[in-house]
Design goal:
Blueprint lengths: L34 H17 L4 H8 L3 H9 L6 H11 L3 H4 L35 E3 L8 E7 L14 E8 L2 E5 L2 E5 L4 E5 L4 E4 L6 E7 L2
Antiparallel strand pairs: 1-2, 2-8, 3-6, 3-8, 4-5, 4-7
Length: 220
């Protein structure tokens, strides 16, 4: 006869807790550095974008951010994350290191301006600006970065408040006039100059009959 069956005395040990749970992903850190780093980044993004002939909207669309955000980066009021910086760099065709002012083979090199032949001519022989009798266009044909004009007692479309992209530089060679920029008014006499952001509302008044003023305008 078979003997009694020995009861199973094996006891299962405690289940080992699963320690392979996923670890929360750390948030994408912002670009580290001082205020100087942010300033360098802001200037680099603006410089490279303009050199490439890209608008804020074009860069934003490529980088997957808003045009307003790209504008904030260029003004130094936004500190992008490492990921966003990489996206903006890709949109501009450069590396993050180049935008941050890195040195070595990858250092940023401003794109050269499109070539054009120099223009030599006495100002009185240049074509006058349409609709005005005292404004001469000094800009060389094919130039893209700046425009230059010589004004003689004619303020053109700047005799009333206006604003446009880019920057503007004026130098009074003779006579006088008043310039108003964002509410600040100054009387300009011979050898006086003013350099300002053309996006600020500005205009000129009280031009003397002998006013001779050089005006240089940049693109956006």
């Amino acid at each position: 006869m078979s003997g009694p069956t020995t009861p199973d005395t094996t006891v299962s040990g405690p289940t080992t807790p699963d320690t392979t749970a996923s670890v929360p992903t750390a948030p994408d850190p912002a670009v580290s550095g001082s205020a100087d780093t942010v300033d360098v980044l802001a200037a680099s993004v603006a410089r490279v974008r303009r050199a490439a002939g890209l608008t804020l909207s074009a860069v934003a669309a490529r980088a997957g951010v808003s045009p307003a955000y790209v504008s904030q980066v260029e003004s130094g009021t936004a500190n992008p994350t490492v990921r966003t910086l990489s996206q903006i760099a890709d949109a501009l065709g450069v590396t993050p290191a180049e935008l941050l002012g890195g040195t070595g083979p990858g250092a940023a090199v401003p794109a050269p301006a499109p070539g054009f032949p120099p223009r030599f001519a006495p100002a009185p022989l240049l074509a006058r600006t349409d609709g005005h009798h005292g404004i001469w266009d000094l800009t060389a044909p094919g130039a893209h970065r700046i425009g230059a004009r010589l004004l003689h007692a004619d303020l053109g479309d700047h005799d009333h408040p206006t604003a446009h992209s880019g920057e503007e530089f004026v130098l009074v060679l003779a006579g006088s006039c008043r310039v108003s920029v964002a509410g600040t008014v100054r009387l300009l006499r011979p050898a006086d100059s003013c350099h300002f952001a053309a996006t600020d509302e500005h205009h000129f008044t009280d031009a003397s009959d002998d006013l001779l003023m050089l005006v240089v305008l940049t693109e956006e």
